[in-house]
Amino acid sequence: MDFLTVPLLSVFVLPTLSAYSSRLNLLFFYMSWTTLVMSLSDVRIEMVGTLMARLIFWIIPSCIFFLFDSLAPNTAANLKEGGEAGLPSGSRRHRASAYIFQVPGMCLVNFVLSFLLQLAWEKSMIYFRFRPAVQVTIAVPMPWDIANHLFWGFLLREILSYSVHRFVLHSNQPGLNWIADWHDNWFHSLRSPLPLTAHYDHPVPYILHNFLPMYIPVHFFQFHMVTHLIYIVIISIEETFTYSGYSILPISMLQGAASRVNGHLSSDGRKYFGRIGLADLVTGTGEFLGGLVGGRGVEDDRRRRRR
Ligand SMILES: [Zn+2]
């Protein structure tokens, strides 16, 4: 395992060490990357890379946030957008019950499920001699190619995620009622977002709404492993902060995303269905710039629900 983790860790850590010159950084990165590609199978590199990115940027920080909220509810409530309603226990005076710890447990079960699906998909691609979703080659893509793939990848993720969330998970169609009920009984049982709950839902809506919109763009655009790692790191950071429930977030874009998740829960699933807000802005299912833009689709949804 050491043999595996040292080059992988250097791929993550070396670019952040400012003590080295950028040329030296690049050389170390390329040497580590070449060693990794030559010594391990493509699937192993993809799966271990995904797991490490998720551990470092989502699981560990989210668990720290969850424990902080549970052990120091008074301080945490002052930092939460929803005040004490945003605490796992829902109150400053009460400690989180054993029940609430089932929520992060279920989030981790869902994550393991998505991880196994990704592994099974890549194994079956190799078995049937198709091109795998993630390309592991010694040649590293140019920054422009990485940016181009990330742009289209995040756009497709937004369209897929929005469509599934709005038209399947909040559907009134008789054939889709059972999926909508699962999403309603699980995810919408949360009063406000809690750390880790980006992955909290019944496993079926979770796979449809979280895993597939995240992984289909990777396969469709045939991401290089380096692009895939950056994609997973950005998604993990987004999920960690957006669902932390804190009102003070490092980037205003994350602040907006966190407010939209809060808005989706507090409106009982009548607005804000997308991840980055773009689809809500275009289709009018959200309120932007203080309600000056959008909001038409929300009213349509309300009318449809009343009927
Ligand atoms: Zn919903």
From TrEMBL:
Q: Does the keyword Mitochondrion apply?
A: no
Q: Which residues cross the membrane?
A: 55-76, 96-121
| Pfam families reported in the protein's UniProt record | FA_hydroxylase (PF04116)
Q: Where in the cell is it found?
A: Membrane
Q: Which UniProt keywords apply?
A: Membrane, Transmembrane, Transmembrane helix
The segment(s) forming the Fatty acid hydroxylase domain are 152-285
Tell me the protein's name.
Answer: Fatty acid hydroxylase domain-containing protein
